């Protein structure tokens, strides 16, 4: 049995194509946003908000003019623009995933992890990034609502190329991770699921995580230094039949920032 701790990789915020091209002033006032790139499939494009703890928010949009059939085939096709829709874990080594996959698939949670699917994109400077994506599915390979369980992003090229959160010396945080609002790390993810699914999802989360904080709360790791490393994911009840994800960051001062219409981030000291 592997005791590998899952590492929070990134959180996905879906926006319209127009919003991605012209980000709101409120967002740029509080955060530094850097170019991301386009997926090799040509379906989505993104920009990144990278934090000193090595995690990042992916502001993603469906490409303008993408064929309706291609968009509909995407797992985020029915997600609501202007909301946090998904989140990903990673590991120090892809070899650490198989024991986690076996535990979840045998947990009687109704959640199953598929085999890795190659993914990638090109950075604006032409550097090609490669990784594997592993998605959660339900029984009979049915789609699950995005965000109800984490997907996995396991790098084939160095993660530092995909997520440039360290300066060139490899010791200090990169300039792009220094934000005017003082945000430093992701301290908590609250995943709200329908009441009828809470018990089963609790089994899935317990199979993924090696650190439990009691109840429906688990610990995850991050790539940052010891002062920033790690946070908590909690499983709560959604007020309706949809999955909702609330995000709390650690920062210099406590505040709430509406970075996009419908997307509010809580920052605590």
From TrEMBL:
Ranges for the Glyoxalase-like domain?
Answer: 8-199
For this protein, the record's InterPro entries field holds: Glyas_Bleomycin-R_OHBP_Dase, Glyoxalase-like_dom
Under Gene3D superfamilies, the record lists: 2,3-Dihydroxybiphenyl 1,2-Dioxygenase, domain 1
Please name the Pfam families in this protein's record.
Answer: Glyoxalase_3
Q: What is this protein called?
A: Glyoxalase-like domain-containing protein
Organism, as annotated: Clonostachys byssicola
């Amino acid at each position: 049995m592997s005791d590998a701790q899952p590492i929070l990789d990134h959180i996905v915020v879906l926006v319209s194509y127009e919003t991605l091209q012209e980000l709101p002033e409120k967002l740029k006032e509080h955060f530094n946003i850097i170019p991301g790139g386009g997926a090799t499939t040509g379906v989505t494009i993104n920009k990144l908000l990278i934090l000193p703890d090595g995690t990042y928010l992916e502001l993603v949009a469906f490409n303008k003019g993408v064929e309706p059939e291609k968009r509909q085939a995407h797992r985020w096709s029915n997600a609501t623009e202007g909301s946090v829709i998904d989140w990903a874990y990673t590991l120090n080594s892809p070899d650490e995933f198989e024991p986690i996959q076996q535990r979840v698939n045998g947990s009687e949670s109704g959640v199953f992890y598929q085999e890795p699917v190659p993914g990638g994109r090109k950075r604006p400077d032409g550097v090609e990034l490669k990784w594997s994506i592993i998605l959660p599915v339900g029984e009979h390979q049915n789609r699950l609502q995005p965000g109800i369980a984490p997907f996995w992003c396991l790098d084939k090229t160095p993660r530092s190329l995909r997520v440039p959160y360290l300066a060139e010396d490899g010791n200090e945080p990169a300039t792009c991770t220094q934000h005017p609002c003082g945000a430093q790390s992701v301290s908590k993810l609250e995943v709200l699921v329908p009441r009828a699914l809470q018990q089963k999802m609790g089994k899935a989360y317990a199979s993924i995580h090696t650190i439990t904080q009691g109840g429906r709360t688990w610990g995850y790791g991050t790539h940052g230094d010891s002062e920033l490393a790690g946070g908590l994911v909690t499983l709560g009840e959604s007020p309706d039949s949809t999955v909702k994800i609330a995000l709390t960051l650690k920062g210099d001062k406590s505040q709430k920032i509406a970075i996009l219409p419908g997307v509010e981030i809580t920052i605590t000291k």
